[in-house]
Amino acid sequence: MPDAATSVAEWEESVGRTSEKGDLSARARRRKLPNERKAITHKFSVDGHEGYVIVGMYQEGKPGELFIKMAKEGSTLSGFMDGAAVSISIGLQYGVPLRVLVDKLTNTRFEPSGFTENPNIRYASSVLDYVARWLGGKFLSPDYFQPRVALHEQQPNQAAPGAPTVTAKADHPRHRGDGSATVADVPSCPTCGMLMVPNGSCYKCVNCGGTRGCS
Hints:
Structural class: alpha+beta
Number of strands: 11
Helix content: 25-40%
Number of helices: 5
Strand order of the largest sheet: 1-2-3
Shape: globular
């Protein structure tokens, strides 16, 4: 049977945890937007699926609410994007940094995916990927307009620890019989044009997920 000292210690620990939860709840205050607020509307198209992004902003210009309206109302995609927009809006109003939300949603992959009409975002792996990259490029940094590049393309002169040293070829870009360009025998993706990376016995695109040469 536990002694009195142990019981008191457990009780104090329990009270401490409850107090900590209470402090967290007290700090999580929702900051609603004013009844009249500025907003920006952006029309987009991903693989022919059109929609609108509507961002309501606080007085200082920071986004505080988001609406994503697809042209085909009543579809599964439309309902999913409505739910995603509500979740993002609640997060913003409770103080979640926009950068955190954008980084988590960028490069999500599901259909529809494909080319867009936005010259800054030529290819999107999903509608949510497009919206996240547009939000990041519009409100955070133009770097979000750029697709994620493979690590070996960003740092071509740095090798992994213990890896054998490979001398880079000075060959000029060549073309295969099917018309796809290759640089140092690495093909470009026939879908989005990014350089592919070896994936077993074939190649894989880190941008759109396409493969080439796989049986």
